[in-house]
Amino acid sequence: MKNLYIDFDGVIYNSIEVSYKIAEEENINKDYESYYQFFKNLDWCAVLEKSDEINDAFNCIRKIIDSSKFNVFVLTHVVSLKEAELKVKLIREHLDDITIIPVPKNLSKVKMVRVKDAILVDDYPENLREWKEAGGLGVRFDLDMDGKGFPVINKLDELIKMF
What we know:
This protein is 41% helix and 19% strand. It is an alpha/beta fold and 163 residues long. The protein has two domains: 2-14 and 52-162, Rossmann fold (3-Layer(aba) Sandwich), CATH 3.40.50.1000; 16-50, no CATH class. The protein has a six-stranded parallel beta sheet with strand order 3-2-1-4-5-6, with helices on both faces. Strand 4 (119-122), helix 6 (125-133) and strand 5 form a beta-alpha-beta unit. The longest helix is centred in the middle third of the chain and has 14 residues, at 81-94. The protein is globular and about 45 Å long. It starts with a strand and ends with a helix.
């Protein structure tokens, strides 16, 4: 069985879209440090309340787990412990038998888990490039089906047929 790591923001929940909209409304500079501080102080409770599940993600993950084809994990960047806590709480409301791995934003996801031959589903191409360079398989999640050089899906249960 292959290890399958699924990103949260932009794949399971549209929280990245909601948080960027808030940043735009607050005229946050688009440099790394300004964004980092913004996300660190962001009211993640409000963000997650304003966000929506993407394309029946939790039911799709349940189908993936039930297929017994993968060891399934949620691998998500976080900027604060509160963000990690709220994401875990939300995921646990839907899935109680999945491992959730919060990754400090200043670390690459490839530094947190064994990547070789594992699959990462992420909406951010740079994460996928790093993953591939480390020996993993990257699948881009994109509602517009723009893979940016990677296999692409717009619904998580498509992974069952893909692999």
